[in-house]
Amino acid sequence: MLLLSAARALVDGIDGRVRAAGFDDIRPAHGFAFARVSGAGATVTELAEHLEITKQAASQMAEELIRKGYLQRSPHPTDARARLLTLTEKGHACTRAADAAAVATLEPLGRALTGSQKQALRTALRQLATPGRIRPTW
Fold it and tell me: Residue limits of the HTH marR-type domain (predicted)?
């Protein structure tokens, strides 16, 4: 329960700072979508697989983010049947704000621990975490 509480505090801290930066029309789950779409982009199917949600739910999320100006849809460069989702400049700005918010949220937490406590925590979390399984659950 303590780990879940800490994770929620981290997400809430980042979300609050992102909203304060002017991106008040998104949810934490959108950040997980941005993480998959950033870079080379992704199809709705790839987004659904990444978020472990249905294609219909991923399509609805994509439509919402397109409507809000965070994503754009374009022809896929190698698959004529698919459409590629990529971040717009607003989407990139939001991810930069989220990166800065994460640093600002983690800074006081890092100061609260000694160097050896931070190392022990990193070691324990590496043993507990499943690589690649960072996705929204709310």
Answer: 1-130
